[in-house]
Every structure is written in structure tokens, then in C-alpha cells.
Inverse folding.
């Protein structure tokens, strides 16, 4: 018998390995079997509320419910306030994202954490904070009152409340795009004599354009669905501050069918937002 690593097995050794008395290793279930059941539970958990909404929706009376003046008023106010909140967020949020991504200064990490705080802060707490910042007795209340501006319980207050909770979505999206973009284009533009503003307008913005669009859509969606900060800071005045989420909450007590109709509108808008955020929106653009 030859010894060593290359030695062949004897017939007796081969028989012992294939003997029926030797215990065979147990077949473990596949990963799909192990994770498939929890995945199915998660999917059902997420889909069942939507299914319940679609099943109980008053489809036949939906046109009549949506034609109700109060419903149209809430819808119009929601779309207008969410649009204005998104525009305001774009005007100040994109510059803030650029500063956080491209400039190094003491306390930058703390500033970023404070900017993202509304993402985890309860919206009602944010509304209370806005009352003590912009209310009559707030930090800026006397100065605003001196020039005749009153923000709480007004449409402008709705826009500010929505922007407060929605702007971080835009900032974090644009900052990530700026941090991951190729800066060689900007450096090449600078070597050719382009000013900082020209480089930002002609190179940087086109490069991050899809991310800015995606951040704006996320910001609009968050503003459209805002409830806690709005009702705390702006109240629930029909025609002035009653947005669709607030109208759904009120209608659920008196007119459940109208609440379902408004909820279906919000669902349709959410689906459109998901379509807008398809992968082709997120492809990097070429500089102009």
C-alpha cells in the first residue's frame, strides 16, 4: 500500500465510505425557502392596506365626490403649497447641499446632522418648534409682526411647515450626487478660464441635474403628505390651511367615502411619483 497525499484508496476504504450504515449529511433547505416566507409576510403587510383601500373605494360615486367644492379646495391647496415648498427648497436647499459637499469648515458634521434632523424628528415637534420660532411670541415673531407678517394659521405657514419636513430629502439627495460626481470637468473648466459661477451653472448643475430632479420629486411627495407639522403650526382651516391629509382626517369622522376619495387621489399621486423616479431619471447627465 502506498502512503502519502497522492495514495489511492483501497477497495475496503471505498466500501466504508459508501456503506449504507454511514450517516449521510443532512440536506439543508435552500436560502429561498428560509427567506421566502418572511419576504412574503413583509410583502403582504405592505400591500394589504392598499388592497383594502382599493376594495372599499366608492368607485361609482368617485367623480361626484371629487367634484365636491371642499375636496377640490383641499386638493388645490395641497398641490399649490407642496409646489411652493418644493420651489423654496430648491432655492435654498441646493446651495446648502453644495456647501456641505464641497466646502470643509469647522462643525460641518454637526451642521449636516442638524439639517437631517427633521427626517427623524416627529413632525408635531417640528410644528411646535416653528410656533416658537415664527409665532407671535416666537424668536422672530415680533420682527415679523412689525412688518405686518403673520405666518401661523396661514397658507404661508403651510408652505413653511411642509418645507421644513421635506427639504432634507432634497439636500441629502443633491449632496450625495455632488460628493460622488466627477470633479475633473469642473477643474478643466477652471483651467480654461471659466468663473466659479459659470462652472457651477454650465458644468455642475447639468452633472447633478437628474439627482436634483429626483430630490425635488421626493421633496414634493413629502410635502404633499405632511400632516403633523401642518396642523400644529398652520391649523386646519378649510380653504386656508386644510390640505388633503388634513381633509382625509376630518372626513374620516363625518364622510368616510369622501375620505376614501381623497386617499385615492394621494395614492395616484404617489404612484406617479414612483414612475417619475424610475432608473432613467437617475442616470448622470453630460455637462452642457
Amino acid at each position: 500500500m502506498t502512503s502519502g497525499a497522492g495514495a489511492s484508496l483501497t477497495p475496503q476504504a471505498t466500501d466504508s465510505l459508501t456503506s449504507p450504515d454511514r450517516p449521510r449529511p443532512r440536506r439543508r433547505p435552500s436560502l429561498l425557502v428560509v427567506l421566502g416566507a418572511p419576504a412574503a409576510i413583509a410583502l403582504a403587510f405592505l400591500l394589504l392596506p392598499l388592497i383594502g383601500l382599493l376594495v372599499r373605494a366608492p368607485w361609482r360615486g368617485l367623480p361626484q365626490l371629487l367634484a365636491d367644492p371642499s375636496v377640490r379646495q383641499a386638493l388645490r391647496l395641497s398641490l399649490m403649497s407642496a409646489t411652493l415648498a418644493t420651489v423654496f427648497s430648491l432655492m435654498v436647499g441646493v446651495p446648502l447641499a453644495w456647501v456641505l459637499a464641497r466646502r470643509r469648515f469647522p462643525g460641518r458634521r454637526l451642521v449636516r446632522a442638524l439639517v437631517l434632523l427633521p427626517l427623524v424628528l416627529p413632525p408635531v415637534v417640528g410644528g411646535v418648534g416653528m410656533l416658537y420660532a415664527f409665532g407671535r411670541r416666537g424668536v422672530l415673531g415680533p420682527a415679523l409682526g412689525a412688518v405686518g407678517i403673520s405666518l401661523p394659521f396661514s397658507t404661508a405657514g403651510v408652505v413653511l411647515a411642509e418645507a421644513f419636513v421635506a427639504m432634507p430629502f432634497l439636500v441629502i439627495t443633491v449632496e450625495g450626487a455632488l460628493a460622488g460626481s466627477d470633479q475633473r470637468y469642473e477643474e478643466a473648466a477652471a483651467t480654461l478660464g471659466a468663473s466659479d459661477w459659470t462652472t457651477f451653472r454650465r458644468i455642475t448643475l447639468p452633472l447633478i441635474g437628474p439627482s436634483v430632479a429626483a430630490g425635488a420629486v421626493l421633496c414634493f411627495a413629502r410635502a404633499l403628505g405632511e400632516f403633523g407639522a401642518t396642523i400644529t403650526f398652520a391649523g386646519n382651516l378649510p380653504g386656508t390651511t386644510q390640505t388633503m391629509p388634513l381633509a382625509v382626517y376630518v372626513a374620516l369622522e363625518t364622510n368616510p367615502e369622501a375620505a376614501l376619495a381623497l386617499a385615492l387621489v394621494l395614492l395616484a399621486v404617489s404612484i406617479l411619483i414612483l414612475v417619475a423616479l424610475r432608473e432613467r431619471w437617475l442616470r448622470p447627465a453630460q455637462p452642457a
